[in-house]
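Exercise 7.
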Amino acid sequence: MKVRHLALTASLVVLTVLALLLMSGGAWAATEGFLISQISHGDYPWGPEPKVSGARVVWLGWDGTDEEVFTWTASGGIKQLTNNATSERPPQVSGNRVVWSNYAGNVFTWTPSGGTYQITSTAYGEESVVVSGDRVVWCGADISNRRDVFTWTPTTGIHQVTMNTAVDGSAQVSGDRIAWIQNSEAGVDIQSGIFTWTPTGGIDQLTDGLWGQERVQLSGDRIVWASTKDGATEADSEIFTWTPAGGIAKITDNTVEDLWPTVSGDRVAWESGAEGAHDIYTWTPGHAPFRITYSTRDDVWPEVSGDRVVWYRAFESDTSYTTQVYSWTPAAGGLQVSSGRGGATPKVSGDRIVWHGGDGTGTEVFTAVAVPVTVPTVTKLTPASGPTTGGTTVTITGTGFVGLSGAAAVRFGTTNATSYVVDSATKITAVAPAHAGGAVNVTVTAAGGTSSTSGTGNDYVYLSRYQEDDARLTYTGVWTVSKVPEASGGSFRFIDAAGSVTIPFNGTSLTWIAKMSPLYGQARIVVDGGPYILTDVLYSPTVLWQQKVWRTDPLAPGLHWVRISWTGGKNPSATDTNIGADAFDIVGSLAAAARAEQTDGKVLWTGGWTVSTVPDASGGSFKFLDSAGSVTVKFTGIKLTLVTKMSPVYGIARITVDSKPPVLVDLYSSTVKWKQTPWSSGFLAPGDHTVKIEWTGTKRTGATGTNINLDAVDVIGTLR
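Solution. The predicted structure, written as tokens, is:
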């Protein structure tokens, strides 16, 4: 295919609002809306309008050299059916069969299974090709320029329907019935008659040719046309219909122009009025004509499928001219379909409408599908989480996505989506905005209202991403830092020996982001000091970057910690036992220790502690003890670290955490050192803890005293 500028698939560009068309009874209730899709994306001439049958759309497009035939379906995208040096005439479609003629005067047909087949190969001009099912009909000229009606089916081949001295044209087909207009000249006037043919019944003449017959259309056995009688007394046109059982019936009888009839089943539609102020009417057997539009504009060129009537309205002023496509059904009333840059020459098949419209740079092919209006629901988000910086593309699955309008139609919490595209009535593709960390409800506001915030299917979780070099992470062992652009933040760490990384955080969930490759082995994971997990989630036969390799189960809000350790184990297919850390996504935030001075009123003292005020101490003072006594620090959290002075006069302290066995901590140093951290509780299970520091009266050899002291504590949590 040589057309580089054609999109291969249709992209949904807008969901039309249910712009109402005022009727005689006021505004119709909005019970349906339209999902609009721009099919073509290239240089297309205004030209003949696109056609539609079921899910298949066809049109005549420009491929950069000449006019060629194109087709589209939602599942298959665009396909160029012709690619030659001869310009084609406008195609027609019925089901999956496409037909057209070219300017060389031949008729062609195409189906997805059979490809292109040339029906005629004459030197005469075949044109006005139409199709219904597998029956193709056209009007062909012979060497004397007499025009006759021809038909073809795959099983019967070509059959010449007419052979006379008149001019047969404007042939139409529905099933096996063909109808056409036969013109003959009488003096200076052209007289015309309506004829019909079926394979079993042959030709029937429906009218006597004394009236000027225009635009014959048929659906099944019902034929409609507009007719104008010559003469000053009846110069206006009226709408007529015929069936084999009922004969000819006159639908309209007035003094204005009734023209452009169209029919589907038993429903007939047409336009009526004076120049510049036409309205759309419809009729079914047993009912009087019903006026659909009451407009001061021009409502023209109706088309009908089932009970759906479509047309376009012209808006003209001294400075501009625009058109918009409208639709009407008995249940939904009249609604504006196209929006923005307008649309014209609509065609319809069932609930699918097609037209020509502008995209800002040229004329393109658009389609719309009518869908019922219901209260929208959001049932699933994919993915259901992303960083607080926003930018994640989220697929929203649900129902009732009809009639979205404006930036606030899709919201993450109280913040509008950065952008969104309505893919269908059940799918929206949105870009998440920046937002504070935590879970928010995603809501959709459409024609049927705003989706509920209940349930969990609409929950989107904002994650804060922290890189592997964050100072709040605790590493043990010798980790290698590797700077590569593929890694999150431009670097990651790995280890192939004993070591670990511990991540303290305040929140409800943590996701481990890591590189995966054949070199990576098994990791051991511990959450809040609970049972360990062994996993080889880092192994992959190919290198993958920034993978979400593991995530905690949902945790209670509060402080938590996760430790990831090297084990030396691996997947049987792995070639090494490395583990790595690239980043961590947290629903919440990394936790850091906060310093509490020894002057804090929550610190409990026993014995004769001495306060010493010195600028080198944390907070400008510390306390020391050289006799029986203790200090107790109670906290709620996950870790506590002592901050002390160390010097030659300091001895050994006994430290107890909760009910665990005590440990001895030596505060001796050969030189004076301030704000040292000789002991830490390590990471504890989240909750309430008690740390007790006692004087023992013992010291190491070389120490000159048995003092103990407390300068401050660093706690991940809060004192209590």
